[in-house]
Amino acid sequence: MENRPFGVGGPAVPWIGQGTWQMEEADRGEVVAALRRGFDLGLTHVDTAEMYGRGAVEEVVGEAIAGRRDGVIVVSKVLPQNASYDGTLRACEKSLQRLGTDRLDVYLLHWPGRHPLADTIRAFEDLVAQGKIRAWGVSNFGVEELDEALAIAGEGRIACNQVLYHLEQRAIEHEVVPWCERHGVAVVAYSPFGAGSFPSPRRGGGRVLAEIAAAHDASPYQVALRFLGRRESLLTIPKASSVRHVEDNAAADALELDAAELVRIDAAFPLGRKRRGVPTV
Ligand code: NAP
């Protein structure tokens, strides 16, 4: 599995990771087996949040990483309403407990909120100094918010910006990706399969994906991942609750798309107009 930098200060991380949103709704045994199969296949970046299942998903992730913590990159997120200085420290402690670990690899602010960003970042930096997190980042930040974070923290501190990015929602390519590339911030693409609303193979862009997939004996999901992860700055975190889906996603690492195929996909899923901020749906 190809590794990429998780920002300037962060750990090296596989370009395909594993999301966990709504995993509390699936069978716990199956989900734990799926996450572990993913780790075995190199999908060692696991993304979770205190929000997911109100902490229940962090407990599931804790079960999946038990006994193999050192081989996994664990990312969690503080909710904006908890992201005061003290609230961030408290939230981190609770996440560590639920995850059954003494440290997070990267800790994110889930989206911009009412607490001053400087307070959240001060808490993140103190958590780094205490060894409770290795690095920190943000999520759902547009370029104005990224500018603010950079002005507070300085270069080389923001590991990533986790943002919505799938074939039918490419808005981050206009400004957010170039900003992150200029400042060595990894872009983590969430909902890479459109949160389950994947293009139908019977029409339009979905048909293009299906044709390219067939030519490679691959799945359209693998083709989508390859396109989204086509730049060094981009990481992906598809969520899969079954071993079958995890294996399918991991196999995207071996898929190679040529320039003509990338151009075809680009045309089939047009970039769209520039807009203010970042989309979240
Ligand atoms: P997603 O990864 O775009 O799509 C998940 C859906 O795709 C599930 O229905 C899953 O089915 C299905 N799937 C996965 N692999 C498949 C395959 N190879 N073939 C067919 N179907 C497949 O959706 P997401 O959960 O919204 O996004 C991924 C992760 O990003 C989340 O889990 C979360 O960790 C993160 N996220 C972050 C934010 C944020 O604000 N920072 C927001 C949303 C999401 P099964 O579950 O049945 O396998």
**Proportion of residues in helical segments:** 25-40%
What do we call the CATH homologous superfamily?
A: NADP-dependent oxidoreductase domain
Label the structural class: alpha/beta
- The quaternary organization reads as single chain
The CATH topology is what?
A: TIM Barrel
Mean pLDDT: 96
CATH class: Alpha Beta
Please mark out the parts with pLDDT under 50 across 5 or more consecutive residues, or reply none. none
Task: Tell me the series of helices and strands, N- to C-terminal.
Answer: EEHEHEHEHEHEHEHHEHH
Order of strands in the sheet with the most strands? 3-4-5-6-7-8-9
* CA-based gyration radius: 18 Å
Number of helices: 10
Taken as a percent bin, the fraction of beta residues is 15-25%
Q: Got a strand count?
A: 9
Which descriptor suits the 3D outline? globular
CATH architecture classification: Alpha-Beta Barrel
Structure notes:
- By secondary structure, the chain is α/β, with parallel strands linked by helices.
- The protein has a single domain (3-268), classed as TIM Barrel (Alpha-Beta Barrel), CATH 3.20.20.100.
- The chain contains ten helices and nine strands.
- The chain has helices at 28-40, 56-65, 85-99, 117-129, 143-153, 176-182, 204-216, 220-228, 243-250, 259-268; strands at 3-5, 12-14, 45-47, 73-78, 104-109, 133-139, 158-164, 186-190, 234-236.
- Strands 3-4-5-6-7-8-9 form a seven-stranded parallel β-sheet, covered by helices on one side. Strands 1-2 form a two-stranded antiparallel ribbon.
- Helix 1 (28-40) packs parallel to helix 9 and helix 3 (85-99) crosses helix 4 (117-129).
- The mean pLDDT is 96.
